[in-house]
Design goal:
The chain is of the alpha/beta class. Helix content is 47%, strand content 22%. It starts with a strand and ends with a strand.
Amino acid sequence: MAVNKLLVAFDESEGAKRALEMAASLAEPNPDAHVDVVYVVPIPLLDDKQMASFKEILDMMISDGEDLLAEAVDQLGPVAERADSLLLTGTNPATEIIKLIDQRGYDLLVVGNRGLSGLKEYMGSVSHKLLHGSKIPVLIAK
């Protein structure tokens, strides 16, 4: 199976940084490989009045996410010229990433593991949700 189109789910965690390194090492020897790096800005469920008050904070969160993605793409080294950043918003990062996977023809999802264990891992881990919800292979960087 050729891995030409990789998606890296990225946040500020150490696991996400390891996922980025893995994706770069997988893509580097393949000149046809392309890497998309995605960050999801989490938005709480709010009514219209709350959302109006939240707009300024949301704008800052989106700006911070764009900066984070720019730094992540730079960390890809030589692969950066074959990479794009994608900023999404939503109430559940795993759900938004799975929607993205369903819309595009990715060969592999690379995601970090935050090292959660027990109930925390089962209930809250984005990587756990992606592993079980993705229709494509998932590589979890530990």
